[in-house]
Design goal:
The structure holds two protein chains of two kinds.
Chain A: H1 2-22, H2 27-50, H3 56-74, H4 81-102, H5 107-133, H6 145-157, E1 163-169, H7 172-179, H8 181-198
Chain B: H1 6-19, E1 25-31, H2 38-55, E2 60-62
Parallel strand pairs in B: 1-2
The chains are: A mainly alpha, B alpha+beta.
């Protein structure tokens, strides 16, 4: 089993290192991907060398770790689902092919590994997406106060010209009370949509409060 | 709005209000000053907005030195 796991780690690790070398994403993400890749390569090499002496439970744990590492590499691109799905498909196909070609693992093990990888990838992806949504308002899709404040903090650090405009819908509470919350929500969405389109590039529209 | 001065931002905000003519909107605008934190900038925008509301809803105001902030 150790010699089955080792190529799995080495293949995943190599893919991650290559992806990090070619990626144009944020530097932080590339380093985490490269780190995961190097870690996988190290574990793979160690498995080749000393793996046979390890008890089965340790090897089982390593399967989980390896799958998590692959998910880590697949998922730092939450805004481009086609790309991340393609990455995941390549990874699953590659590792399954390596396991089957090596011959000492039954096909069912390869299938099980593929299922583990896909499940972990999907779960992690959902969590990443949810975390990145924390700064936006669900109703209007604009940044919420938290997302806005964080972005504004960054932008006020350099000394360039910058202006803030706070727009407040008058009598919004009345609209909510007389026409119902759905009408209020519709109004907010309509206003947010038309303002978002009219703003210059670089501007940061946000729902700063209920009707602000 | 980076790269936008106070008066320009006010003009822009007025244009935004014009996009939704059926909705009455009050506006407070302020330009960043040296030493401003994000919180201070937004507090000044808020004060300007509420001062404008006191003077009459549906108004757009740019923060001026005389306003308290």
């Amino acid at each position: 089993m150790a010699h089955t796991l080792a190529p799995y780690f080495v293949a995943g690790g190599s893919a991650a290192v290559l992806a990090a070398a070619r990626g144009t994403d944020e530097v932080g993400r590339r380093w985490s991907v490269a780190g995961a890749g190097v870690l996988a390569l190290t574990v793979g090499t160690a498995l080749f060398r000393w793996g046979v002496r390890l008890p089965r439970v340790v090897l089982g744990g390593l399967v989980t770790v390896g799958s998590s590492l692959i998910s880590l590499v697949v998922l730092p691109a939450p805004t481009r689902p086609p790309t991340s799905v393609a990455h995941m498909a390549t990874t699953v196909a590659g590792t399954s092919a390596a396991l089957l070609l090596l011959g000492d693992a039954p096909a069912i093990h390869a299938v099980a590994l593929a299922v583990v990888v896909v499940t972990l990838a999907s779960v992690t992806r959902t969590l990443v997406l949810r975390a990145s949504d924390a700064g936006s308002d669900a109703l209007t899709g604009l940044a919420n106060r938290r997302g806005f404040d964080e972005a504004l903090d960054e932008r006020t650090r350099n000394g360039t010209t910058l202006s803030a405009a706070l727009l407040d819908l008058d009598h919004f509470k009345q609209i909510n009370d007389t026409d119902g919350h759905e009408a209020g929500d519709r109004l907010l969405r309509r206003v947010a949509d038309s303002w978002r389109q009219a703003l210059p590039a670089g501007a940061l529209p946000a729902r700063h409060g209920g009707d602000e | 709005m980076p790269g936008v001065s106070g008066p320009e931002a006010l003009a822009l905000a007025r244009r935004l209000c014009g996009l939704v003519p059926d909705v009455s909107v009050s506006v407070g605008v302020t330009e960043r000053r040296a030493g401003d934190t994000a919180a201070r900038l937004m507090r000044r925008a808020d004060l300007t907005l509420h001062q404008g509301k006191v003077d009459g809803r549906g108004a757009a105001a740019l923060h001026t030195e005389t306003a308290t902030a």
